[in-house]
Specification:
Length: 196
Amino acid sequence: MPKPHDWEVEHSLWKRSEDLRLGFAKEYQNQGDGDQRLAQESKDLRTFNPVPSTTKDDMAMDRRSLRRRLGERLFLLVKSRNKEGSAGGFEPGSWHFPVVEHAEGESIRQTGERALSSSVGRSQPIFFIGNAPMGHLPSIPEGSTTFFMLAQVVGDPWSCKLKPESGYEDWAWVTKEEMPNLVQDPRLRELLSRML
């Protein structure tokens, strides 16, 4: 850094004295241990070893675990069983978010909460963000629409299991970049690329 001009030094000193006089700044006493504290902080920084963010589940490529890809957001995808008439108009055996048919008198948020609780149960601490959906996709059966709600896992629920009656055969926690490898529906893939 270049040495400041004399007028800059003079102005800086004048500004400091004016700030002190007007009460905009305060003069603090020197604690006397600043050099020792600075030396200790430097020593601590040199000996600090951060915990790796790569876990055993990353190494094992276990997509069923939330204890992976710790620096990124993970999204729950489920694979529907090979049966006709699945909710949302998704192909049997395809990967997608948990879905259920809307029940009369239910809000969109309540339907989203029911979709999640019917797939993984209520043991997971999950917070739904807002009442409005974050996206929608017109379903293949004309006249119906699939809405997508934003929810976040709260706390440390490292294990997740599908309910046997959920209608799904598999689940995966994936990043946005991993989704195209599982989601085959081109309409859903395009929506996810814009929505997430």
